[in-house]
Amino acid sequence: MRHIISILIENEAGALSRVAGLFSARAYNIESLTVAPTEDPSLSRMTIVTTGTDRIVEQITKQLNKLIDVVKLLELTDGPHIEREMMLIKIKASTMAQREDVKRLADIFRGRVIDVTPTIYTIELTGSGEKLDSFIEALAEHKILETVRSGVSGIARGEKSLHV
Amino acid sequence: MELSGADILVRCLKDEGVEYLFGYPGGAVLHIYDALYQQEDVKHILVRHEQAATHAADGYARATGKPGVVLVTSGPGATNAVTGIATAYMDSIPMVVITGQVPSAVIGSDAFQEVDAVGITRPCVKHNFLVKDVTKLAETVKKAFYVATTGRPGPVVVDVPKDITDPNIKVPYHYPDKVTMRSYQPTVKGHTGQIKRAVDLLLSAKKPMIYSGGGVVLADASEELRTFVRHLGYPITSTLMGLGAYPATDQQFLGMLGMHGTYEANMAMHDCDVLIAVGARFDDRVTGKLEEFCPYAKIIHIDIDPSSISKNITVDIPIVGDVAGVLQEMNHLLSTGKKQPKKKELEAWWKIINSWRAKQCMSYDHNDKEKIKPQAAIELLHEITGGDAYVTSDVGQHQMWAAQYYGFDKPNRWINSGGLGTMGFGLPAAMGVQLAYPDETVACVTGEGSIQMCIQELSTCLQYGLPIKIVALNNRYLGMVRQWQEFFYKERYSHSYMESLPDFVKLAESYGHVGIRVERPEDLRPAMEKAFAMKDRLVFLDIVTDQTENVYPMIAAGKAHNEMHMSPHCELPQSAERELS
Fold first, then answer.
1. pLDDT block averages, 10 residues each, chain B of length 581
2. What's B267's DSSP letter?
3. Catalytic residue status for B574
4. Exactly one of B95, B241, B267, B480 is catalytic; which is it?
5. Which 8-state DSSP code applies to residue B316?
6. How far is CA B245 from CA B97, B222, B236, B279, B411, in A?
7. With an 8 Å Cβ cutoff, are B183 and A13 in contact?
8. Deepest in the core among B129, B276, B519, B553, taking most CB within 10 A?
9. Nearest 5 degrees, angle CA B109-CA B115-CA B121?
10. In terms of DSSP bridges, do strands A32-37 and A2-10 run parallel, antiparallel, or are they unpaired?
């Protein structure tokens, strides 16, 4: 089962390596991990996507909570939540037909062309991981030069929020 | 008051009430050593290897309940300390380790004696700090002690770059009385509703079993445990780490459980219908095959660490909290409630247990007139020390025999590396214990393999006049390895025999101590009596024991509690299959 864990962690040197080290030391899976400071610069918000049985994920959350730097933790997949991932994708678009098709697909997926050269389109696309996967599939006929994905960021819906 | 970082560090230790600092100097900590030189409050113990500094601090902590404190230099000082830090981590021992670091300006440049101490120790500490600002030093030290000693205890490393301790940079000193950390607030009080449910379940048991562990010793909850067990009248077993929390000589005590546990303890675990685990963590050496662990039991688990609960074994009633507090609450409910244990069923259960006990699983050959039996040596040690010594041990067969045959009646007396299984632990740990309790008898039970892993500490023992009694069970084999090779590798004794052993008597003498070699059973008693009568000398008893003796009973790794391998001298078939009861 796929789980998304959100963490508020002290914004200190080494905090990220404590989390990453925990996953490797205990042989937990990690699909993606994103981290950046919050509106309070002393805190970072981390979103971890992991897979495992309920039992393993329970251990993961307990072990994360045990890290001294972890202030709060929420398993987003326990309730209604929103997840988003951003992708920057560079595609070969040198002929007119290619340029039109790529633009058309980008529009369908509500992506934006953010950089253009005579032979290349770079597109920014935001959505769930599945949506980004689908966009890549839709580009099967085209030559993808580069993909950069941010990893998942998530937030709980409604009143529920993760803050100090 | 303005002080340099070095003076601040030493003042912090004094204000924290630190009695002993175990350490070894080097370049990155020279400022700190200079500050130590100019005061007499914190006594520094100079070891001969940094590993021993951590083990000595660990032994001190295990015997006293107070945190052990270590000071080592950067680079190899820190890496040598890692084994001792990991040892303390696995057994949840409170410890603060100060490691020197190269100056801030050269961190990351592969400077002389530079290692990433914070990175290297991260997986084996409760927490660690790199001090980046001398004005934060005192607060960081306070946090280190706070984290190390509260919740589930553990080692904390404070990495201090050399420029932070510069004698020329002085800042105001203030040691905080307490610190709060928004990210660290351990739960100590158990949930009242869960405690009530647990007591109800316990009182409904027909075949109850109590399984206590090192958490009881760490929480100083021995008295509460004794009240609890006696009120219920239930059988109790203990892990290796918990020995002494409940008196071994008491009738309700079934002995240790697990891989080298007693027949009665393991069978009772297997057959019980309600199990309460008190400050124990369901280690693989205890549970054996997870799928067949306590197959008929509802399980209650008290532990201060939420991550210990349902980690290996799913439990029915988890209680997160300090063992002492939870047991107090349970004892209150038991003594004021109307419901009492099921008397008739309990009598029947004890009858079954006593039939298991009658098999005498711990029997060994008492009639050998030629060879000294290691078990007999431990039993004699118990007799001569009145069962009241602090016993440290190394790792291997001698450790198991000490655990099985010494019979600990008090907590904090049995000091061994249970989780990590660190050979070389025994002697330096004994130094820490002897310093804490100079007038008590401290024995280090060891083997000729283990003792050589920290033998250099004989020199430290002389320097500080530590009259430790080393009881070396010398079988010329790495005994536990040899035992596994006999059982599981068709007697292919690959590199488990030790040739070219030193003359331990001369070795002890060359370090300024007394050495006694014992080769015959009839010489054992007079030798041991003589050794323990020398109150102010370290005596190295080199006891030549039976080479072929094995530790029984034994559950092979991955087998169930009712699949024990028995001693040829007890009244059970060697491979004791479950009897139908």
1. 96 98 98 98 98 98 98 98 98 98 97 98 97 98 98 98 98 96 92 97 98 98 98 98 98 97 96 98 92 95 95 95 97 94 97 95 92 98 98 98 98 98 98 98 98 98 98 97 96 94 98 98 98 98 97 91 88 59 35
2. H
3. no
4. B480
5. S
6. 28, 5, 11, 11, 5
7. no
8. B276
9. 140
10. unpaired
Give B309's contacts (C-beta < 8 A, 6+ positions apart).
A62, B301, B303, B315, B318, B320
Contacts of A9 in chain B (CB under 8 A): 183
Is B112 in the active site? Answer: yes
Predicted TM-score (pTM) of this structure: 0.95
Q: How far is it, in rounded angstroms, from Cα B239 to Cα B282?
A: 9
Q: Are B97 and B70 in contact (CB under 8 A)?
A: yes
Give phi and psi for B172, each to the nearest 5.
-60, 140
Q: Is the ipTM of this complex over 0.90?
A: yes
Bridge partners of A120, per DSSP, are A92
- CA B202, B207, B213, B217 torsion-angle sign: positive
Instruction: Provide CB contacts within 8 A for A149, sequence distance 6+.
Output: A32, A85, A86, A87, A132
**Cα–Cα distance measured from residue B318 to residue B314, given in angstroms and rounded to the nearest whole number:** 9
Paired residues of A122 in beta bridges: A90, A115
User: Which of chain B's residues have a Cβ under 8 Å away from the Cβ of A14?
Assistant: 118-119, 122, 130
d(CA A85, CA A5) in angstroms, rounded, equals 15
Instruction: List all residues 6 or more positions away from B144 whose beta carbon is below 8 Å from its beta carbon.
Output: B96, B127, B129, B156, B158
Residues whose CB falls within 8 Å of the CB of residue A64, separated by 6 or more in sequence, listed in order: A5, A7, A19, A22, A70, A73
- Nearest-angstrom CA–CA distance, B59 and B433: 5
Q: Does B462 touch chain A (CB under 8 A)?
A: no
Q: Chain B residues with CB inside 8 Å of A63's CB?
A: 307
Backbone angles phi, psi at B127, to 5 degrees: -165, 160
